[in-house]
Write the C-alpha cells for this entry.
Amino acid sequence: MRAHRASRGAGLGAASVLAAAALALTACGGGGAPAPGAAAPPHKSTVLLDWDANPDHVALYTALDSGYFRAAGLDVSFEAPSDPSDPTKLVSTGKVDLGISYEPETIIAGSHGLDVVSVAALIPTALTSVIATDKSRVHTVADLAGARVATAGLATQDAFLTTILARNHIAASSVKKVDVGQDLIAAMVTGHVDATLGGFRNVEAIQLAAQGLRPTVIPVTDAGVPNYDELVVIAKASRLKSDPAYRALVRGFLAALARGNAAVLADPGAAATTIAKVAQGYDPSVLPKMVDATVPLLRNPAGFGQQDVTAWQSFADWMSAQHLIDKPVTATDLVTDAYLPAS
C-alpha cells in the first residue's frame, strides 16, 4: 500500500464538487433530453484513483484510451486524490461513483463503518516488498536481523515488518526501524538504511534495477504477511442495493475494464505507450520496464477481478490481531464478485 503524500492543494475538493454537480445535472436531465431516435449520451462518471497515474493503472487507461468505457455507455474521467484514503471516503459519501483503493484500506474503511464494497481485484496480488540494493548486507529475510529498515511510516507497514520478523524468528529488538516518508529510494541509494519496506516490486524495484543496483526484492507475502489484493475497485454498497442504474454503471465499468486488462496482457508495448501519456515524473526509458513488470501481476488465475472472500477474511482477522482495526469486520460485507463480467 502506497505511502501518504503531502496534499496537492485544493484541486481535488473542487474537482469532486464539480463532478458531483455534473452527475446531479445529468440525473436531473440538465443536459436536455436526446432528440427522438438519437442515442442517449454516455453517462459521466468520475473514478477517484488511489494515487497519481502510474504503471499500476495501465489497464484503466488502456480501457479509456481504447474507447471501451464509451462502448459501455460511460464517459469516464479519472481523478488523482489528495490522499490515498480519499477514495473510500468519497465513494462512501457518494461524491464519486467509483474508486481505486487497497484491500487493507477497504478493510479499515469497513471497520469505521464506511459505505463501501470491493467489486473487483484490479491487481490481485501484493506489490509491497522488502527491497535492498546490491550494496546492502540484506539479501534474504534472515539478513534483516541487525539491519536498519526504512518504512514510509504507515501503520500497515509497521505491522508487516512486525509479522515478518516474528514469522522468521528475528528479534525485533535487533532491527532499527526508520521512518523516511516517501524517500524510500533515496534512503537505499545513499546507504542510509540496509533495506526498505513499502516500495512496490513493479515500480521502485525496477527503478533501482535501471540504475544498475541489482536489487533484492522480497514481496511481503513471501516473507510471512497473509495474501491480499493490492489494488481493488470500490463502489458504494448501499447504492448497489437500491439503485438499478448504479448497478448497471458498475457492471459496464467492470466489463470495459476487463477488456482493457485483456488488451494490456495481449500488447504490453501499446499499453506502455498509453500510460506514458498520463504518468508524470517517470523516466520514459524505464516506464516500459515497469509496465512489463506489472503485466504478469495483472493475471488473475480465477478470472479478471475475482476475489477470494476467505482470503479477505483471513487478512481482516490478521489486521484485527495487529490492532490495525478496532472493530472486527465480516468479509462478505466488504467484497462481492456479483458485478464482474462472466468468465
Remarks:
- Strands lie at 43-48, 74-79, 98-101, 116-123, 128-132, 148-151, 176-179, 195-200, 216-219, 231-236.
- The chain is about 40% helix and 15% strand.
- Confidence is low (pLDDT under 50) at residues 4-35.
- The longest strand covers residues 116-123.
